[in-house]
Amino acid sequence: MAKIINGRKIADEFCGQIKERVLEIKATGTTPCIALINASDDPASEVYIAKKKKLSELVGISSNVYRFANDVKESKLADLIKKINTDKGVHAILLQSPLPKNIRFRELVNLIHPDKDVDGLTTLNQGRLFSGEPGVVPCTPLGVLHLLRTVHDRLAGLHSVIIGRSSIVGRPLSQLLLNANCTVTSLHSYSQDLACICRTADILISAIGKPCFVERDFVKPGATVIDVGVNRIEKNGAKKIVGDVDFDSVSEIAGAITQVPNGVGPMTVAYLMHNTLKLACCY
Ligand code: NAP
Predict the structure, then answer these.
(1) CB atoms within 10 A of CB 264
(2) What's the pTM?
(3) pLDDT the model gives residue 16
(4) Which terminus of the chain, N or C, has fewer Cβ atoms within 10 Å?
């Protein structure tokens, strides 16, 4: 049976350290502050915003939440971002995704000042990561790397297979692991023979949003399996959140594994706090 990588516990410990650092920064006269923008009427988005606000309060970071109806005009969101860009009291801006279909996510993200881009999604920050320059790195990949370091003293030379290549998870994670000297394979919806490639992984990460996609035959015995997926399903009439990994069968063969919930999710929010603090410290 695999060792469970307890993302909740690891995130709580990390947030304790962040809280101490926030106190130090506050003593110098700066209160780190994040703007959370939600323009979706998807209940899941509101849950994520509430979690982010709650954790901000817990670690002493101030948060301003901006909520808009689903039919908000892109120009209104653009104006808000430009206004917050010039507000010296706000250090970080998060644009909660998904946005309504009529709104162009990338255009809006690129309006965020790169030094307030808390999820490292602007083209500039993504370019910095890919060219090995210092910048803001997306929160979920940072959280995954943190979890991996609790299992592996040394990542160099390990073969990491990442399923999913989005700009918020898969791509930046590939780059982070490459920077950690892993051998990295990136899989996506056009990839062939996924199970066969995944079975060569020392570290297997799934970030695709397909419930129970990764089955036992994808996993090399003893491999570390990180499940980034968050999928809302209905089972026996009850609503449930599951990952991309078929936990019951995969945990029998993996060496270490995360669960959903309480795996990568808490680490993502913890790193949102970490990045806010970093930006407030005149990054
Ligand atoms: P996304 O933008 O929709 O990207 C999905 C990726 O998966 C794409 O690269 C896609 O390939 C690939 N893919 C889809 N179906 C596939 C298949 N059958 N075989 C191989 N690859 C496939 O999603 P995302 O934003 O990265 O999120 C992925 C999942 O992670 C979602 O469940 C999301 O809720 C979750 N998530 C969790 C956290 C957290 O904190 N736990 C944070 C962010 C996201 P193509 O590029 O070829 O289309």
Answers:
(1) 28
(2) 0.98
(3) 98
(4) N
pLDDT score recorded for residue 12: 98
Task: Measure 253 CA to ligand 1 centroid, in angstroms.
Answer: 24
Q: What is the pLDDT of residues 76-96, one digit of tens each?
A: 999 999 999 999 999 999 999
Active-site residue 193, yes or no?
A: no
Distance CA 243, CA 241 (A): 7
By DSSP bridging, strand 203-206 and strand 159-163 are parallel
Helix H, strand E, coil C: the string for 54-108 is HHHHHHCCEEEEEECCCCCCHHHHHHHHHHHHCCCCCCEEEECCCCCCCCCHHHH
Q: Which domains does the chain have, with CATH numbers?
A: 29-113 (3.40.50.10860), 139-265 (3.40.50.720)
C-alpha of residue 229 to centroid of ligand 1, in Å: 7
State yes or no: pLDDT of 60 exceeds 80: yes
Rounded CA Rg of the chain: 19
Active site annotation includes 96: yes
